[in-house]
Amino acid sequence: MSHPDKGADISSSCTSVSPRRCLMGITLAITLCVSGGTALAIHHSRSHGLMAHIHHGLVVCTADSRNTLAQTVSQPHPAMVRMAVSSGPDGQIIAGPQAAPLASVLTSAYKADTLLMLDLNQANARNVTQLVRKAHMRDRVILVTSTRKSLEDAFTADSQVMIAVPIHSEQEAHAVHRLAKHHPYAAYLSASATPDLFAAAHRGAEAIITEPPVTSKVSTADFLADKPVDIVVMHPSATLPRTEIASSHS
């Protein structure tokens, strides 16, 4: 970037050189500025993305039962918020208990550096990922699928948004890995999953998601101590959807 006292003096500096060389110089300067801005945006995205959070430790995801993202700036925001999305009567994609437009939720999450876990339910995955891309949240969102169709739709909707897949057996873990190919995905395992299932899912998935057991004398810390868990969902009423994967892709 030029010095403030010299940066605006383009016309006078162009008088001593040919117009062609002057134009080339201006074009180069603009290109460097744009490239620098793009690099800065990419660095910011990577440093605040999902994998960066996972790299730094366990990510705790909370359910948005009270419009968490609407908190004031002085209040701490959670690392990740889980909410359901659906299509409104007018076709608009809405999210959370307040049925807010997903576009505004994504904007708020981006400004708060908060990750989002979105339950697709019956919402169109392509419409959801289009909003995610527009909000520059592709590396900060996980889409949770509940049916085989929603899983396949999510895999084809966007090549970079991570998909969370409920996995109930080692057979399903292998089937999902083959189905995903190079698409980033997270294995969503029940608290009752066996150590072998955790290990099998961990070998193929970019991340492991689970929930602490609802009725247990074991603390959450002890429950997670010997498991390769990256994201823990603190949601007492959450249930793991049954997605039949292996039956069609084994």
UniProtKB/TrEMBL annotation:
<dbReference type="GO" id="GO:0008081">
    <property type="term" value="F:phosphoric diester hydrolase activity"/>
</dbReference>
<dbReference type="InterPro" id="IPR017946">
    <property type="entry name" value="PLC-like_Pdiesterase_TIM-brl"/>
</dbReference>
<dbReference type="GO" id="GO:0006629">
    <property type="term" value="P:lipid metabolic process"/>
</dbReference>
<feature type="transmembrane region" description="Helical">
    <location>
        <begin position="23"/>
        <end position="42"/>
    </location>
</feature>
<keyword id="KW-0812">Transmembrane</keyword>
<protein>
    <recommendedName>
        <fullName>Glycerophosphodiester phosphodiesterase</fullName>
    </recommendedName>
</protein>
<keyword id="KW-0472">Membrane</keyword>
<keyword id="KW-1133">Transmembrane helix</keyword>
